[in-house]
Amino acid sequence: MEKKSLGVVKTQYFTFANPPDELKLESGARLGPVTIAYETYGELNKEKTNAVLILHALSGDAHVAGFHEGEKDPGWWDSMVGPEKAFDTNKYFVICSNILGGCAGSTGPSSINPRTNKTYCLDFPIVSIGDMVECQKRLIEYLGIKKLLTVVGGSMGGMQALAWLVKYPNKIHSAIPIATAMRHSPQQIAFDEVGRQAIMADPCWKDGDYYGGAHPAKGLAVARMIGHITYMSDASMADKFGRQKKKDSEQFKFTADFEVEGYLRYRGDNFVKRFDANSYLYITKAMDNFDATRSKPLQEVWKGLKVKVLVIAFKSDWLYPAYQSKEIIKACKFAGLEASYCEIDSTYGHDAFLLEFEEETHLVKHFLKKVFSVSQNEAKL
Predict the structure, then answer these.
(1) How far apart (Å, rounded) are the C-alpha atoms in residues 165 and 37?
(2) What 3-state DSSP class applies to 83?
(3) Hey, which residues are catalytic here?
(4) What tens digit of pLDDT does each residue of 297-341 get?
(5) CA 21, CA 8: separation in Å to the nearest integer?
(6) Domain limits of the chain?
């Protein structure tokens, strides 16, 4: 039986940190005003104890479920959010916001700098995963929520979930980091750097000052192509494309004659229609700089916490391999947290966190039911 859709939803906006009360970033720089785009689904209960915060990955945004008016495609995790789905909007109040530094409604390098009345470009300060979480905390407070039932996200979203655990563990009952890491490995940093260099090598990049003219579309498309290769697996590529060639392919020409070539070009070309190249630079740098441990053993940082944790990984994910998720669960166990780990047998690679919704739904539903029951008992005390 097909689950119901949320129907048409709208993006909302929250602005804070107006001068002289600018947001102080982890770098020491100050930024304001700051606008955060967000969407909500379901109803917040009277006690305000049923709120779930979904954290998006690198190319995501606040539109996690339902449809925007006039659009045919639903939100990026629509299979997981809605009535009777993993994040059941009949039970939970679901929130998703576009990150600081993004380009889908939140303040980022493509926004107007109020001091100059011009686009920030590279005058936008370097932001961190922690800064993104600070903005989310301000949004949650604005919505009148004292404590979240859970924070959940895959990939970079998982990093944000870990940052919540480190920065504001008293503000959450649980966390669900999926297909993520406590810090990037040299290989993960290397892939990000190649993507950044592709953008900066585009003659249209102009040291980030391209707004109002031609954007570095070719460089950003290549960056996306590189990224998309890492999101899939050898098995999923073989299954989806094999060595199949297009019917109209020309032998010995530098055209996209293999199906996989055409697919990557299609993904790259589509990506540049909705994403900003400078945001790509800032966000990947934030991911590379992220270190949940902050040079301290996590078992010490998390010791004594009452937060429950569900860690999910995928066997074919070679971008964020399972050993990195096992490091997270090991730290949880050493700290005495109530934590569970599940490694899903999938061939989809890193993209599995967006595609294996049946397995994830089973795990998340069971986990949230338990967390919600405990949180309700705590609220009565």
Answers:
(1) 23
(2) coil
(3) 155, 317, 350
(4) 888 889 999 999 999 999 999 999 999 999 999 999 999 999 999
(5) 36
(6) 12-183+291-380, 189-284
